[in-house]
Amino acid sequence: TKHFPVRRRVRDLLSRERRVVHAVDDVNLVLRRGRVTALVGESGSGKSTVARLLAQLYRRTSGDIRLHGESTTVRGGRRFRAYARRVQLTFQDPFASLNPVHTVRYHLTRSLRIHGHGGRTAAELERALHDLLGRVSLTPAERYIDKFPHELSGGQRQRVAIARALGADPEVLLADEPVSMLDVSIRLGVLNLLRDLKERLNLAILYITHDIASARYFADDTLVMYAGRMVEGGDSETVTQRPAHPYTRLLIASAPDPDRIQGSPTDAAAATPEDRGGGEPPSLIDPPPGCRFHPRCPNAMPRCLTALPPRLAVQGEPGHWASCWLYDPENTETPGSAAREV
Ligand code: SF4
Ligand code: MG
């Protein structure tokens, strides 16, 4: 769970009243080696916050992160450093995360050295650098190694950012929107590279995206976030073919073209369901009581307005769950009976 303390806007600052953004609540996920887990949601749903929490760039308000069953609650010390090496994060915009005054060689050497994988001799280091570039299919390495970030294409920069993460020899890769800023024509290449790395290096990958169609193509498991909470999860095929949560259904219905792996160049905007008349995600300051989706939900029932739904199993679909009262076997209320007229 992550709550950001914020101050209210100017007039409220005078009263010095402090409020809390419920950035993410009750997030519960397990990443497994050799699997890609997609975390899908609109912008502002909290998905990047989850990645930063897992990378321990943010401190948690509460909760725990375990690696191989061991708590990482204590910051500092050897256990934290081991965690920081094993869990690597890449960002949506690799341009912003690569230092413009340094070459590819500098970035990768630094990563290798920090994590103790640079070898002892200059020749060993050079071999390790070539290996890294080879892993992300930037070959021949000589063509890329002395380039500055601005001399590379967006796709090449993202590959360098991935190579830098691999320099740590991680077990977990947190990829925050790795292709959403890239040209549609090269997205598939980067996703295929990540899938290949998952298999060859037995990585656990968290793939963060607003594009549920790509989750179906690329991820083994899919989790859907809405307003800072996880609302549905299961294997990707099931979640995308038979979505259980009304929000996931809305996401799929408003995706630009479910049969295409990636949307149009404007899919970042098109995939936002508000355009299609679905209302807006709620503020994360004082989120609505009950189910956070109830103001937009066509199936809302009276209980949804006051009671937060727990994770409920979808009958007959092992591993598939939704945080939605529709899946409560004891539910007696009529779906839609509390939905607002639109
Ligand atoms: Fe939420 Fe109720 Fe709609 Fe389910 S039916 S998504 S619990 S408002
Ligand atoms: Mg984000």
TrEMBL record:
One of its GO terms (molecular function) is ATP hydrolysis activity. GO terms for biological process: peptide transport; transmembrane transport. Coiled coil: none annotated. InterPro entries: AAA+_ATPase (IPR003593), ABC_transp_ATP-bind (IPR050319), ABC_transporter-like_ATP-bd (IPR003439), ABC_transporter-like_CS (IPR017871), Oligopep_ABC_C (IPR013563), P-loop_NTPase (IPR027417). Residues 255-291 are annotated as: Disordered. Keywords: ATP-binding, Nucleotide-binding, Transport. PROSITE patterns: ABC_TRANSPORTER_1, ABC_TRANSPORTER_2. NCBIfam families: oligo_HPY (TIGR01727). This is Peptide/nickel transport system ATP-binding protein. It comes from Micromonospora pisi.
